[in-house]
Amino acid sequence: MPARIIGTGSALPKKAVSNGELEKLMDTTDEWIRSRTGIENRYIAVEETTTSMAVEAAKRALENAGIGAEELDLIIVGTISADMCFPSTACQLQDALSAVHATAFDINAACAGFLFGLTIAEAYMRAGMARTALVVGAETLSKMMDWNDRSTCVLFGDGAGAAVVRKDEIGIDGIVQGSDGARGSALVCENRLVNNPFIQNGNRIDYAKMDGQAVYKFAVKTVPQTITEVLEKTKTEAGQIKYFLLHQANIRIIESVAKKLNQPIEKFPTNLQECGNISAGSVPILLDFVNREGKLERGDKIVLAGFGAGLTWGAAVVTW
Ligand code: ACO
What is the CATH number of the domain that holds 195? Predict the structure, then answer.
């Protein structure tokens, strides 16, 4: 596989919101949120936007990679919470970075967005269509929450993560991905309704709705299956993997995956306690945290895995 991750970056909003602060806003408790999900805190955008955080994360990733934006020939942003219908977040990011040689577009694969973006970047490189790509997951989920619905709004946070990917001999050993639109109703948020002079539907604003238990069951079954599949595809033993970096939705999902893969929980770093669920941002932000903590050495093997609305899922084995 001809693509290596050569730099990472992330950006979070300034405003930290603890479970205790949410207790003051709604009928919830720190104990309920912590015991059901593991989440203790999240960062909520006040001054920031999806694009501004994508720009910050991208600049840090480029700096970490030691390359300039003019070297990018592909920019992919995974997001379900773009600031604008158009232009895309990726095109706005291209402009902010002056990445004048890049082709830029957004993708919507919800919490699997970073994994899907990585897959596309790798495929472009395999096809000889790109040499250096920026793959970003960026979200402002707080604007999509019904802040009167305690069953969803306590779970999510805002932020962005980015990775610079460059054509190389080793790096991404293999990726698998999938989707199941038939089960899409488990996690939905409507866009604008059809509205024109010939039909008057109004333009009511919709918010994210989730069948939490359906998503939970999907995750604990599909994630270990997908990771097993990508391990088999790349002829890698689970024991060879240093870290499994999973989408940060719920600590119980992560514990269940660790158990099913028969791997120690210490191999599953988390930041959901601090950041909550940031959809497409979760995996690249966690990757950046682990990278900046100096926990990754050249040659280490890691697994990245995302899963979410669509339903969508993906997993990659990566040699650092
Ligand atoms: N505070 C206090 N009580 C609450 C809250 C809250 N924030 N939210 C719900 N409750 C109440 C409910 O009203 C319900 O009360 P009732 O029994 O009197 O009706 C009770 O808690 C239990 O509610 P459930 O929804 O059954 O709680 P459950 O144990 O299923 O936990 C949760 C909910 C945490 C969402 C769980 O289903 C889950 O983890 N699902 C996985 C989905 C997920 O993580 N999604 C993230 C987005 S998708 C993705 O990223 C892949």
Answer: 3.40.47.10
Q: How far is the CA of 269 from the centre of ligand 1 (A)?
A: 23
Sign of CA dihedral 208, 44, 251, 237: positive
Render pLDDT for 251-272 as a digit per residue (tens, 0 to 9): 999 999 999 999 999 999 999 9
Does 187 lie in the same domain as 284?
A: yes
- Say if ligand 1 is within 6 A of residue 246 CB: no
Is 91 considered catalytic here? Answer: no
Say how far residue 19 (Cα) sits from the centre of its chain: 22
pLDDT over 90 for what percent of the chain? 93
Contact 293, 209 (CB under 8 A): no
Question: What single-letter amino acid sits at 121?
Answer: A
Q: Which range marks the domain in which residue 139 is found?
A: 3-168
Annotated catalytic residue: which of 247, 250, 271, 291?
247
34 lines ligand 1 (CB under 6 A): no
pLDDT at 1: 55
Give the N- to C-terminal CA distance of the chain in Å, as an integer: 13
Integer Cα distance of 111 and 308 in angstroms: 5
For the Cβ of 226 lying below 6 angstroms from any atom of ligand 1, the answer is no
Relative to the CA of 307, which ligand 1 atom is closest?
51
